[in-house]
Amino acid sequence: MRPAFAVGLVFAGCCSNVIFLELLARKHPGCGNIVTFAQFLFIAVEGFLFEADLGRKRPAIPIRYYAVMVTMFFTVSVVNNYALNLNIAMPLHMIFRSGSLIANMILGIIILKKRYSIFKYTSIALVSVGIFICTFMSAKQVTSQSSSSENDGFQAFLRWLLGIGALTFALLMSARMGIFQETLYKQFGKHSKEALFYNHALPLPGFIFLASDIYDHAVLFNKSELYQVPFIGVTVPIMWFYLLMNVITQYVCIRGVFILTTECASLTVTLVVTLRKFVSLIFSILYFQNPFTLWHWLGTLFVFVGTLMYTEVWNNLGTTKSQLQKEDKKN
Known about the structure:
Layout: H1 2-27, H2 32-50, H3 63-82, H4 90-98, H5 100-111, H6 118-148, H7 153-188, H8 192-201, H9 211-222, E1 226-228, E2 235-237, H10 238-261, H11 266-287, H12 294-309, H13 312-317, H14 321-330
Antiparallel strand pairs: 1-2
């Protein structure tokens, strides 16, 4: 029951989170740092109150291990959000973050010496190719439009290339973090709420180096048009409302992912998150009226065929932890 509930949190929270992130990024593409800071602060405060018991509860996993995980998590979050300021369209942003599926498998084979069945290899390849097709066709038009409005197309291309490099780095770092987290859980047990708190609380001092950019965008947010919040009747600048909703939905999303990591193997978690990103991509295309061509439908077919082939995901969601461990050893 908990895995199914976690999957629901992931899809509901993460899909709506992408909408508010795109609303923020369309108005202020460089707002990644203030978004990341707000997300980390909210989750850290909530965890300090309810999980850490105001600092009185000792962590089950030693802090030195969290320090390594936190460094990777903070770097991935900052780089991913900042890439939106490097001529990276939101659909292209999604495909690189969804590419963690194949990156997780490759690093799992190299580092953990895992082996998977031919059906898993094929299904993951189909899912990855399908998402790539959808995103590439969506990003192609956005890139061409931005290039036509730039006086110096070469500089715009170099900036875009830098964004691609940043996303590639974040992709590999994210996959490595997932494997590191999986090894920690095997050694110390699975503590999703504790990991969620420390992953967001420990990096907060690092935002001192980003304080100037965060302040500048806070000023810009204050100057945005006013918006009356439904049901409450309070009027606030609309960018602050978007940020608040982004933070809340991000918390729901991450909470679901961390619960899922306690119930399923790393590859299974990555597949669920990847499918969620595909749903977010389709919803983003429809909601923001981006074109949906035959290539997009082809990508959709690849994703769902790959998902049907990867039937072990849903079997894993209904198994016990001991059965999961046996399955991991077999793979």
